[in-house]
Amino acid sequence: MDSSEWLQFVSSEVGSPAPEKSVPEKAPILQMPTPPISQQGSPSEEIPESNTVVSVSTTFFPGASLGPLPPDLIILSTDAVFFYVHCHQVLGASENGFNSLLPPKQPKSTEDVGPIVSMPESSSVINVVLHTIYNLPCGHYSPSVETLIFAVDALKKYGIPVAKYVAPSTPLYQQVLSVAPVAPIEMYTLAAHHDLYDLAVPISSHLLAFPLPNLTDEQAVRMGPIYLKRLFFLHLGRIDALKRLLLPPPHPHAPTPTCDFAEQKKLTRAWALASAYLAWDARPDLSASSMESALSPLGDHLSCSLCQATLRDRIKQLIIQWSVVKTTI
To answer: What are phi and psi of 51, to 5 degrees?
Structure first.
């Protein structure tokens, strides 16, 4: 996520105090420059040395319409980005006083927007955490996979119930689910670590092609034994189901003058060889088209139209049965 997409830059004179102390006094200024398109050409590079640049979130800034009351708390990230929020909103979401950071110990003067609380997380992580607390979507910031993982872990650290704020229909749940196709094992491990079963289930459907030997020790430990077992059983269960579905050969038709039961045994033997080939290389993500392409050519060697019809019916039945086999944990 490019920080320039969600930061505002406020300049102040050098004669004023340092940013950490001066921001509360400058915060009520609502006319803030629009954030630059990129770091190149940003105010931090263009303004004279007599000015100081302060980075402020474009969502959580003094004039943001996030509630009926003005913000009364400032959160500062490790990369010096300021977030103006409501103390009651943050405290109301936390079960441990926001990791004992709230209520702030420093008093608030009549001229201050609020006390400053420093957090040991980056601005991108804090941005996701605060959007979650305010029940706001953060997808337009395109948070990275690493940012989402750190943000969900930070929710637990700051006493915010993960099961409640990453539940189905919540913005963060949808955001994690949206990146699952590109990082399935990372998102499944995250859901498993926090016991988010409703999130782990849809994510697991993207893991059918994941090679289990590639699972690292760290991922296995973080995932935990229960969700690790569920993932293994998903793969093994689908492979076992595929082998069982492939076993029955096409049903023989009634004997005809040109095709008796002995002649039909050719199809049975051919089916056994083709199905054994599929079963030997069985994968939980085997597609219906792969099965059809492996079994349909058997009909090219059949002269009996009835045998060809039974083969087509058997392949169709196999594909339907395979499509209903469970694809999630």
So the answer is: -115, 155
Q: What is the pLDDT of residue 106?
A: 64
Calculate mean pLDDT across residues 320-326: 96
Whether the CB-CB separation of 249 and 280 falls below 8 Å is answered with no
Distance CA(61)–CA(74), nearest Å, equals 9
DSSP state of 8: E
How far apart (Å, rounded) are the C-alpha atoms in residues 252 and 254?
7
On whether the CB atoms of residues 8 and 33 are closer than 8 A, the answer is yes
Residue 30's CB is within 10 A of a number of other CB atoms, namely 9
| 3-state DSSP of 215-256 | CCHHHHHHHCHHHHHHHHHHHHHHHHHHHHHHCCCCCCCCCE
pLDDT of residue 222: 97
Alpha-carbon distance values, 309 to 254, 264, 273, 303, 315 (Å): 13, 12, 19, 11, 10
Q: Residues 148-201: pLDDT tens digits? A: 999 999 999 999 999 999 999 999 999 999 999 999 999 999 999 999 999 999
Distances in Å between the Cα of 126 and the Cα atoms of 164, 203, 205 are 18, 24, 30
Q: Render pLDDT for 63-94 as a digit per residue (tens, 0 to 9).
A: 888 989 999 999 999 999 999 999 999 999 99
What's the rounded mean pLDDT across residues 133-156? 97
256: left (phi > 0), else alpha (psi -120 to 50), else beta?
Answer: beta
Residue reference for tokens 């996030």: 66
The CA distance from 85 to 236, in Å, is 49
